[in-house]
Amino acid sequence: MPKASTKQPAPASQESVEEIVEELFKSSDDELLNPDIPFNKVIFLEKLPESFNKESKTAHDKFARLQGVGIPLFHRDELVEVRRALVKEFPYAVHIIDNLLKPTFRRMSAGKEGIVFEPTILVGEPGLGKTRLLSRLLEELDIYHRKISVAGMQDDQIFGVPKGYATAMPSIMSTVIHDKEIGNPVFILDEIDKAQESKFANVQHKLLGLLEKDEAMNWHEPYLQAPVNLYYVGWLMTANTLSTINEPLKSRCHIMRMPTPAVEHIPQILNTIRTDLALDDGLDPRFIPSFDEAERTALINSYAQHKSIRVLKRQVKEILSLRELTLQ
């Protein structure tokens, strides 16, 4: 059983970006750098079966154009800049950022294009910012991604339903690859530990084949009735606990523990929260005054007690709301 990482990261100020990049480039991943796989494109669908062609002309016409066609892998060269921006925003999670970026650094070291990820579970108490960290990483990379809250979700909403059923539909993966024409979309499965496991819903179990690279290359798409290549699809997950995640799934994932931000990180986090709230309201953050000394001290002292980014964000909202009332 994989162990969650417990080692605390060194302060970002003590690290040289060049040294970090050099370290990330050192090792290679034979699985990700398989020479038989196109370096910048992926053939998602070799051929639709004849039975599919006859049964559903509309669906056939939709996917027929993808048969045997190389679909580009999204690529981003400026990984050092991405890393620098994320470390500034999440100074307490440097080791997580580096481990998430490592497979792409390795791939680039072999002269290949395309952002790639190891299947990863980011585990930690509620309110530590797990989902936000993953979302911000993918936003900075500018890669297409989709967040899926799996708590209470039926597995067919992710993995598709075969034709012949009233609710027949392609998997989310096939739909995104078709609609966005990207071979390496990324999916954030939020709260994978809360996925229902029953004869009607088996999200954790159905993920297993997608996390094995050999199987992902020939994953049977129930709706298309054909194998599709999901080799480069990224799977990032969050969980509050590992106790309700099955062992086969854990064994296929890199598991990292989300650290609790130290009190000294809170001033930077406060600025980030203030900026995000302004952008959410369609405002320019420059027009929202920074926290005064009393506000900052109160927020920091409060965080030292509750240790929750979620609570901190709620408190910041309250302060900003009080400011608005004062101005009225």
CATH architecture of the largest domain: 3-Layer(aba) Sandwich
Regions with pLDDT < 50 over 5+ consecutive residues?
A: 5-14, 27-35
The geometry reads as elongated
Could you spell the SSE succession in H and E letters?
Answer: HEHHEHHEHEHHEHHEEEHEHHH
Number of helices, counting only DSSP H or I runs of 4 residues or more: 14
Please outline the major beta sheet: 5 strands, parallel
Instruction: Please tally the β strands and state the result.
Output: 9
Radius of gyration: 22 Å
Report on the structure:
The protein has helices at residues 17-26, 50-55, 57-64, 79-89, 94-109, 130-141, 156-159, 172-180, 203-211, 213-216, 247-251, 266-280, 293-306, 309-327, and strands spanning 41-43, 70-72, 120-123, 145-149, 186-190, 219-221, 226-228, 234-239, 254-257. By secondary structure, the protein is of the alpha/beta class. It folds into two domains: 12-257, P-loop containing nucleotide triphosphate hydrolases (Rossmann fold, 3-Layer(aba) Sandwich); 263-327, no CATH class. It has a five-stranded parallel beta sheet with strand order 4-5-8-3-9, covered by helices on one side. A two-stranded antiparallel ribbon has the order 1-2. Strand 6 and strand 7 form a beta hairpin. The longest helix has 19 residues, at 309-327. It is elongated, with a radius of gyration of 22 Å.
